[in-house]
Amino acid sequence: MSLHALTITEAHEKLRKKEISCEELTRSCLERIEKVDGALNAVVYRNFDRALLEAKKIDSEGKFSSPLAGIPYLAKDVYCEEGVPTTACSNVLRSKDYVPPFDSTTTKRLKAAGAISIGKTNTDEFTMGASTETSCYGVTRNPWDTKRVAGGSSGGSAAAVAADECIFALGTDTGGSIRQPAAFCGLTGIRPTYGRTSRYGVMSMASSLDTIGPMCKNVEDLAIVLQAIAGADPLDGTTGKKPVPDYTKALTGNVKGMKIGLPKEYFADGMNEEIRASVMNAADVFKKLGATIVDISLPHTAYATPCYYVLCPCEVSSNMARYDGIRYGHTVKNAENLVDYYHRARSEGFGNEVKRRIMIGTYALSAGYYDAYYRQAQKVRTLISRDFAEAYKTVDVIIAPVTPGTAFTVGAHESDPVAMYLEDIFLSPQVMAGIPALSVPCGFAKNSMPLGLQIMGPQWGEETVLRVADAYEKSAGFAGKKPAL
After folding, report:
1. Which residues are identified as catalytic?
2. Distances from the Cα of 291 to the Cαs of 200, 436, 437, in angstroms?
3. CA triplet 154, 143, 107: central angle to 5 degrees?
4. Residues forming beta bridges with residue 450, ordered by sequence position
């Protein structure tokens, strides 16, 4: 097996036994990027020289007590790293050659664990999108079929992991941006409980919805990375003080006696039959493992996506206000006056999707519409959260599809943004409730594209979600499948 194809656990074992060096592992990933990324466009910045220096340093120290020591990874281009260009794949920052003078909490914790950052991955502009088609660097393509998208907004990270360009990658999930690309690319990714991981140093889209998490080749790797990055952070007041359990100890493969909910609202008439069948087959796997499948209802599910697309643009409108070309962002020359300067800085710097969300959010927050839209959406958000809280009184986890279909072709929704928003139909409810959810491979469609199973748990229930996902992964046999590149 090529070194870049190893999992974290496999690579760590070889490093610990001195069967390979950290430099060899890192070079293997760098060479893989050089070989295949021209067809994918997953990596937008290459931090190769610095990565090799770090690898040599780790080799010279010879300490591999941490499972992440010497493991190369890629970070979505919204994670600030000291001395590394970070643009959120937007011309607003790209034109300024922005280089952060500090590390995000997550990359700082990974650095402390010995992980090696080798570059930045492509994303929808400021994470606004579901296909990585709004990036100023161009679209990222799916390793399973380069005519199709890798998903979004963490499509670059998903494609990179699926193509073995790194051992793991970091993504962000606001409305499904880890889970959907993970499903599209045949890997596993987790959206933790809101507040379980720090958002400090990660460029915001919607501050009350954004979460950050890993995308990996299997569930065990997810547990290892989440263990390293989770926990309270004094620099992020939204992080919780809940103790972080040992996630790897939860991976027992045993779900006997557990109750697994199957919500009827996720299986409406007319849904993709391959998606339905894959989830029902997963339910059968859990039955064979000794779990009980329970039919449940989450009655406000239908309102989650409309609710999300009111609240998210409102927060976008607020967060994007800082990029005015004076304090931050694209600089304009020869402006006629201040109004012209603002107009040109934002119209030249932002793409269509960012502009669209700013306009929707500003409208919804304006006098006369705030109560009708924003306040009502917050009330609905509470109802959705209550649905989940009520469900978890009778079940341990809930399973459902990740997406309404497989990865769509590049440009399929180009003229219909609403159709793109509906890609989030199975992903928005968990966001409203702030609960953990992950995607794990559950088969392939007739078009040979991967399918994903979504597993959701109660707040702070990552341990349970990982346990269930690991048991399924070990029994179903879909992990480790690779695209032919």
Report:
1. 76, 153, 177
2. 38, 20, 19
3. 35
4. 444
The stretches in the chain having pLDDT less than 50 are none
Beta strands in 53-151 (DSSP E): 72-76, 116-121, 141-142, 145-149
Query: Residue 440: helix, strand or coil by DSSP?
Result: strand
Q: Tell me phi and psi for residue 336, to 5 degrees.
A: -75, -35
Cβ–Cβ < 8 Å for 22, 471: no
Confidence at residue 275, expressed as pLDDT on a 0 to 100 scale: 95
Look at residue 480 in the predicted model and tell me its pLDDT.
83
Other CB atoms within a 10 A radius of the CB of residue 336 amount to 9
CA-nearest of 378, 400, 396 to 451 is 400
pLDDT at 197: 98
Q: Helix, strand, coil % (nearest 5) of the chain?
A: 45, 15, 40
Residues facing residue 437 across a β-bridge: 191, 456
The pLDDT of residue 162: 98
What does the block give as tokens for 38? 């021209």
Element (H or E) spanning 438, and its range?
strand 437-444
The helix (H) or strand (E) run that includes residue 45 is strand 43-46
Instruction: Please tell me whether residue 360 adopts helix, strand or coil conformation.
Output: helix
Bridge partner list, 170: 75, 214
Query: What is the tally of helices (H) and strands (E) in the chain?
Result: 16, 13
For the entire predicted model, the pTM comes to 0.97
The sign one gets for the Cα dihedral 139, 28, 170, 163 is positive
Which residues contact residue 402 at a Cβ distance below 8 angstroms, ignoring those fewer than 6 apart? 176, 179, 180, 182, 183, 426, 427, 439, 452, 453, 454
The token duo for 240 is: 């919780």
Task: Report whether 142 contacts 159 (CB < 8 A).
Answer: yes
* 371 backbone φψ class: left, alpha, beta (φ>0; ψ -120 to 50): alpha
* 141, β-bridge pairs: 149
The pLDDT score that the predictor gives to residue 415 is 84
Say if residues 203 and 81 touch (Cβ distance below 8 Å). no
What DSSP line would sit under 175-203, residue for residue? SSTTHHHHHHHT-EEEEPPTTTB--TTB-
What domains are defined for the chain?
3-259 (3.90.1300.10)
CB-based contact 174:76 (threshold 8 Å): no
**Tokens 């919804």, located at residue:** 364
Cβ count within 10 A of residue 53 = 12
